[in-house]
Predict the 3D structure of the following.
Amino acid sequence: HSMMASDANAGSCCPPGSWGDLQDSSDVANQAGTALALHTGTSVYVTPANPTGTPPSRVVVMASDVFGIEGRRPRLADYIAHATQAQVLLVDFQRTQTAASAKNIKEYIKQFPWTAIEEDVNATFEHVKQVAASDAKIAAVGLCWGVWAAAQMSAQGYPLIAIAGPHPSLHVEGFAFGRDTLDLVKAIKCPTLLLPAGNDPPEFQEDGEASNYLREAFPNKSKVVAFPQMKHGWTARGDFAEPNVKEDTIKALQIITTWLNERFED
């Protein structure tokens, strides 16, 4: 299948058989948001483009996978914004250096430790402080690598009230940086929703060690919903021509936004 990541390059960041980069820009004309540059120069897709003039009281910081913020991702942001009435900021934390041409995914990811994204994280939260209501609640949605980035934000003390992550790649903490992934999970300071694909690591599955920890840490708030038929990366880059990929992307978005609404109302 031409759109699948080769197993050799997938390494153990994306499990074997994961979705590779998919250039799906069919809906670009219908995007509800607009492009913005942070003071660092980094691009952000902001949606909705024109909030009603009142500063948003709900904000979602969206951290993408390692394939940039193009393709279907702005549409995912639009859906989340619409369903939660939040302003969503989809931030290009890799500054256009996507993994599309990476020869070695492990070496590629090693270029993006916390220190490489911290400046843009700071700029993102500064921007939120400027545009949002003073008591705005901020949640994060991550895609793959973005779940690792969101976990780091929470661990470093950024004021996230929740993290939602389809096909989480929290294990890049071990795979790329040689640290204990469970230690990072234990440093997350907010309720977390994980939506693992069938080929995601066992620790993030419904009965996995990380999942169990998160549910114990935030009872009745953290949640894990597995998609055993889906492959890692499906919401961001799965081929909608394949059976159930579109349906399970919509289902994942419904679960994410219902859960985010509950967390915004906590």
